[in-house]
Structure to design on (969 residues):
């Protein structure tokens, strides 16, 4: 079939069919057409054809946009054929005119398409775009054609957004200057002419909503463009014309427009413009405070007044939040004296803060209907754009300069709210919620930790009088929002609650896991989990296995039962708590058996449709920590764990559950390492599968596959000599080490081979190994690769001796060893970090200069001296520079997802093995080795040291000799 607008029209028509057969056939045909030359251009011409049904043209416009997204500038890894330059040129010549003449539905798709092109080509490869937009803008403005005006402004807004989000670079500033030079004057012209139209409509009786909506939308778009063009720095044009902008901005905050505000959609249009104005003046307050100072007081007064008239309706949240943000910015600036006047802070507290902190019907509905979103806003700090949080941020801002006034005022408000609750708990429970929220939200986090403090109340008294009655209530389902607030208070102030009281409360927290409210049982789980993380001075955990032992069985039962509540089947807070408890509690067989059964049952269920990556990650961490802690305590449990886990892991492998493959490989590695020989046939089958090249195609699986391969290499090294398996393993190494993205993993494989096999087994492969490494070194040398290669050479030397190291390298090319020593080993030895790695590199280098004939030869004196200088540099570094602290288990952030990146299972991690356990101190090893060497050849090495070591290193070496009572003679 030929590629024509008519043939495409038929395809798009069938692609809209509800029947699957014609729809799939049409979609397949469109996919085939998409690879042909001029496909995008032909689709665009179809979109432009007015005789074609609008539904078909809209489908074509969506297809055009998606086609551009994948083919205008495809990534190097993409399989899509890119659009050729000639076709691009023709598209750019047509799209602006077509976008402006289209119906609103199609216009929005073409605007997005234009933005996609602009993202890659504007302005350098599309210099005609801005002049064309400006020319069309002037024409549309003259004709009062606000459909076209808004289409052009919407397009400009999209292409200028990059100035808000990209880092300031010379290239970005050049692009910004080009846009400022070409668009500032037309933008101000549109803004002022539209403002005059609004003034005229208001003075003549208000104007009709149909007339006013597009011109208010035009002003909103002008404000968003203003924001983008001013974001990086204050342009001269805007500074010179600041008054013209600010006069109109203030007008929109202080003028009412009854003809629009009488309807909800009209009010939304006005509120969107006012919110855009608030964002602009906040930007100037933050970045251009000096130039803006003359306007601050007027805007602050306008916003105080405006906020008094903004209802509690959720539709007005954005305006309320942006307006309060402006006041918050003012409160922490040099203009904060506006808040010093008598009565201002109480008025703000009474008329702005308390009304916006009080629970609204929308909050209650969210609590009941969407617990995940409620928790995300309330507990996880993502609620900065909610009224409750931003109102508290305003108080915090004012307290920056007026702490005593704010503290006294809020403390009184809290007491008033609690008194109101006490007078009628059933009717006034929201007052207590408001009081708890104020105390929690105004708490101050101490630098560098989870500890918080507050001046508002005595935390322990408040806890005893206000929070404890909620937590000890036998009705876990009564007043659930108050229960959630109490649990949140305990979570936030957990470090300030005495341990005896907290331990006494743990059974109550366990009870709350049975609450019907998803938020309440989630908060109970989160509270337990966070409490188990608390550390006292010296980093000692405050709560131990002994503290949870009396009720661990009930705790685990309640946690697993909580996962049976509707909508909590994949509750990440509960699963995280399960993981944490398993990491603290004593794992007896009585605990382990039901836990592994429960976890594998959940795993089998989520395998069918992995949709919550955070829950699933904590699920696998829970399995890993249960396996580790239970089997370390009782190794005889391993077969039972294998029986439980193997069917689930097999399901993941057989069904290729992509999201779970890395997790499955890590768990299998953990089980292999725990297994006592002989290894079962199940494992040998997996090992055979591991050696097939196809297994390694997906990069995201590589770290987990390497982890599993290492486990097998350590557990069954003798099987490598059979059926050419070592050659297959080294083929995997070769593939991994050739690429900078996987070279470190390649070294992990290689190091494990060298560490676990006798020299006689690996000797015949060494020329191949060195050749692969030297080729990579020549083609793509990176710091990471050099450090990895140094570690490998050091490991090879300490395992198989310096003679074998030098000889096998020189077998590739005569004297290449000395070249590698001079160009790679000596200058980069100081880069090594980590306790084990530093010891390995230092000991290997020491043995090299004390045992290798190649370096003890008189002709190699300079190399000997420079190597020693590098060893002393490495060992003289301050301890904190050399030691890499072991990290605690990292938290999984909210934005984790199923991507092409590998997610490590902390609890299934490989234990770091020290290949030199017998050598405790590399510094002592160095000076003792040097002393023994010099004793055999007195006087020879002192001269080499004086000629080749830096003065500081000579002093450092002398000090080491004195420390360990050794002499170099």
């Amino acid at each position: 079939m030929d590629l024509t607008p008519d043939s495409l029209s038929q395809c798009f028509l069938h692609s809209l069919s509800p029947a699957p057969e014609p729809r799939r056939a049409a979609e397949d045909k469109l996919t085939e057409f998409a690879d042909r030359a001029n496909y995008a251009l032909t689709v665009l011409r179809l979109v432009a054809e007015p005789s074609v049904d609008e539904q078909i043209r809209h489908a074509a416009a969506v297809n055009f946009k998606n086609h551009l997204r994948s083919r205008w500038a495809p990534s190097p890894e993409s399989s899509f054929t890119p659009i050729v330059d000639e076709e691009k040129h023709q598209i750019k010549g047509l799209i602006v005119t077509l976008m402006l003449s289209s119906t609103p539905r199609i216009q929005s798709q073409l605007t997005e398409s234009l933005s996609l092109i602009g993202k890659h080509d504007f302005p350098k490869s599309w210099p005609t775009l801005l002049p064309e937009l400006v020319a069309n803008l002037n024409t549309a403005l003259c004709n009062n054609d606000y459909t076209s005006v808004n289409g052009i402004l919407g397009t400009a807004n999209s292409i200028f957004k990059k100035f808000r989000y990209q880092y300031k670079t010379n290239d970005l500033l050049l692009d910004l200057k080009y846009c400022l030079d070409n668009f500032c004057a037309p933008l101000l012209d549109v803004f002022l002419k539209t403002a005059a139209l609004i003034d005229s409509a208001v003075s003549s009786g208000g104007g009709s909503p149909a007339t006013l909506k597009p011109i208010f939308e035009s002003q909103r778009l002008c404000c968003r463009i203003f924001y983008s063009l001013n974001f990086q720095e204050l342009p001269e044009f805007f500074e010179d014309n600041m008054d013209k902008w600010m006069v109109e901005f203030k007008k929109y905050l202080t003028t009412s427009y009854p003809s629009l505000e009488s309807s909800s959609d009209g009010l939304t249009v006005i509120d969107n413009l006012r919110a855009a104005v608030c964002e602009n003046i906040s930007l100037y307050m933050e970045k251009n405070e000096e130039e803006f100072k003359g306007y601050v007081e007027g805007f602050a007064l306008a916003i105080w007044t405006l906020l008094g008239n903004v209802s509690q309706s959720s539709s007005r949240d954005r305006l309320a939040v942006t307006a309060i943000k402006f006041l918050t910015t003012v409160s922490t600036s040099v203009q904060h004296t506006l808040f010093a006047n008598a009565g201002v802070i109480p008025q703000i507290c009474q008329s702005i803060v308390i009304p916006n902190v009080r629970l609204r019907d929308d909050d209650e509905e969210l609590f009941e209907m969407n617990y995940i979103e409620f928790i995300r806003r309330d507990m996880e700090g993502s609620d900065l754009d909610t009224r409750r949080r931003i109102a508290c941020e305003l108080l915090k801002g004012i307290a920056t300069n007026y702490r005593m006034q704010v503290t006294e005022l809020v403390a009184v408000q809290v007491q008033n709210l609690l008194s109101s609750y006490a007078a009628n708990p059933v009717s006034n429970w929201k007052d207590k919620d408001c009081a708890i929220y104020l105390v929690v939200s105004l708490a101050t986090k101490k630098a560098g930790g989870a500890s918080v403090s507050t001046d508002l109340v005595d935390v322990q008294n408040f806890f005893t009088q206000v929070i404890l009655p909620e937590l000890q209530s036998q009705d876990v389902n009564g007043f659930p929002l108050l229960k959630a607030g109490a649990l949140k208070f305990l979570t936030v102030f957990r470090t300030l609650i005495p341990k005896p009281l907290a331990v006494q409360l743990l059974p109550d927290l366990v009870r709350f896991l049975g609450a019907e409210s998803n938020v309440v049982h989630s908060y109970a789980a989160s509270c337990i989990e966070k409490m188990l993380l608390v550390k006292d001075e010296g980093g000692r955990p405050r709560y131990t296995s002994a503290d949870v032992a009396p009720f661990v069985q009930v705790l685990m039962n309640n946690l697993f039962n909580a996962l049976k509540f509707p909508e909590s089947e994949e509750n990440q807070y509960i699963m995280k708590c399960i993981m944490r408890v398993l990491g603290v509690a004593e794992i007896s067989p009585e605990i382990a058996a039901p836990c592994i059964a429960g976890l594998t049952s959940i795993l089998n269920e989520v395998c069918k449709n992995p949709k919550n990556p955070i829950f699933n990650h904590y699920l696998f961490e829970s399995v890993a920590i249960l396996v580790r802690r239970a089997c370390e305590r009782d190794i005889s449990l391993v077969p039972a764990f294998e029986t439980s886990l193997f069917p689930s892991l097999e399901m993941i492998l057989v069904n290729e559950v992509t999201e779970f493959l890395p997790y499955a490989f890590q768990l299998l590695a953990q089980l292999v390492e725990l297994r006592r020989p002989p290894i079962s046939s199940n494992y040998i089958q997996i090992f055979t599968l591991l050696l097939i090249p196809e297994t390694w195609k997906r990069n995201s699986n590589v770290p987990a596959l390497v982890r599993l391969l290492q486990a097998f290499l350590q557990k069954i090294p003798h099987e490598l000599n059979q059926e050419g398996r070592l050659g297959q393993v080294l083929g995997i190494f070769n593939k991994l080490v050739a690429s900078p993205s996987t070279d470190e993993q390649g070294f992990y494989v290689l190091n494990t081979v060298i560490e676990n096999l006798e020299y006689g087994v690996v000797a015949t492969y060494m020329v191949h190994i060195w050749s692969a490494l030297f080729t990579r070194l020549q083609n793509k040398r990176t710091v990471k690769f050099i450090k990895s290669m140094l570690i490998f050479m050091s490991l090879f030397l300490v395992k198989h001796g310096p003679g074998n190291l030098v000889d096998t390298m020189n077998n590739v090319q005569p004297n290449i060893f000395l070249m590698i020593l001079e160009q790679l080993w000596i200058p980069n030895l100081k880069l090594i970090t980590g306790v084990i790695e530093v010891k390995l590199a230092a000991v290997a280098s020491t043995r090299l200069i004390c045992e290798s004939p190649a370096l003890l030869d008189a002709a190699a004196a300079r190399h000997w001296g420079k190597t020693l200088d590098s060893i002393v540099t490495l060992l003289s570094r301050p301890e904190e520079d050399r030691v890499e602290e072991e990290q605690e288990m990292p938290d999984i952030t909210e934005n984790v997802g199923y991507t092409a990146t590998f997610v490590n299972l902390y609890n299934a991690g490989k234990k770091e093995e020290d290949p030199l356990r017998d050598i405790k101190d590399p510094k002592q090893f160095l000076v003792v080795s040097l002393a023994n060497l010099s004793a055999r050849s007195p006087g020879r090495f002192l001269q080499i040291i004086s000629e080749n070591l830096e003065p500081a290193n000579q002093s450092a070496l002398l000090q080491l000799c004195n420390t360990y009572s050794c002499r170099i003679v």
